[in-house]
Amino acid sequence: xxQLEERGGGLVQAGGSLRLSCAPSTRTDTFYNMAWFRxxxxxxxxxxxxxxxxxxxxxxxxxxxGRFTISRETAQxxxxxxxxxxxxxxxxxxxxxxDNSRRYGSARTSGAYLYWGQGxxxxxxx
Length: 126
Fold this sequence. Notes:
Blueprint: E1 4-7, E2 10-13, E3 18-24, E4 34-39, E5 46-51, E6 58-60, E7 68-73, E8 78-83, E9 92-98, E10 115-116, E11 120-125
Parallel strand pairs: 2-11
Antiparallel strand pairs: 1-3, 3-8, 4-5, 4-9, 5-6, 7-8, 9-10, 9-11
């Protein structure tokens, strides 16, 4: 069982930036593919970005491409989501997840991911 913890959500004005982080609650030296999803009220959970276990490959949803950047720091086994140019429509609960795999297929469906964090709220005011 992998427990993930997200940090960094909050309230920001449109055009502003936030950086989310996600790390296992228990330190581990094993790295797996990771992803960020988000879910707005009344909407389905949607894929935002993913990163391979080594950090060399990434994938983004069209809605965030060019504004959001996913990265990882292996020393801390932490994955980040830098969000710039935030829009009110980015308001959602953001979740990190892992597929517990080293085969990077850039899965965009939530069912491909085994373990999830509890989520962190991001609110963008207009």
